[in-house]
Amino acid sequence: MKFLEDALAIEQELGRKEGEARHLLNLGIVFQQQGKFKKAMKCYNDTLIIHKEYGSKEGEAAALVNIGLLFKFQGKLEEALQFHQKALAIHKKLKYKDGEAADLENISLILYDQGKYEEALKSLKMSFDIFDRLGIHIKSAVTLRNLGLMHIKLAEKKQWEKNCKLAKDYLELASKIAMREEIYEIIDSIQETLELLRLICY
Questions:
Q1: Is residue 198 part of a domain?
Q2: What is the band of 17 on the pLDDT scale with cuts at 50, 70, 90?
Q3: Which whole number is the average pLDDT over 88-117?
Q4: pTM (2 decimals)?
């Protein structure tokens, strides 16, 4: 924390706005982890202002994403959704597909929490399609795991047989990708979700 604050002060003193924005964003992340949400939000908003002023669209999108994540963490889903949608619009304009896919995944999780299940699944499938085309295997596997988890939760609400089958298909594909690509850090998570599938569906 002290290092970040000192680095920020140096960038501000030298008038280096790019460095100032970078350190503000990192400082905001630390404040958020510490539960100091007002300070975190101020850092994110200050970052956003700098990037808007100096025309850095990538930086602007990064600030918007962090604001959206903070709002979601606080349970302010509608505000979170708006900021992730703004980030998505920028990433689409920049043709930054990795960012676009991440935004779609964030949006899907918010939509699910809002009870908009069909919209959530549509957004998450779009996210997977992009990650898959880009060959980003770890993100493809994580997205498939999330699709499986969503269908398990939906099976408890409606269309039990259909959702159980879809969950099984997605999770088996996620497991196949993780094993093939030796993505060991998510294999346990996928196996835990498969255990939940067996508990709910079989």
A1: no
A2: confident
A3: 97
A4: 0.89
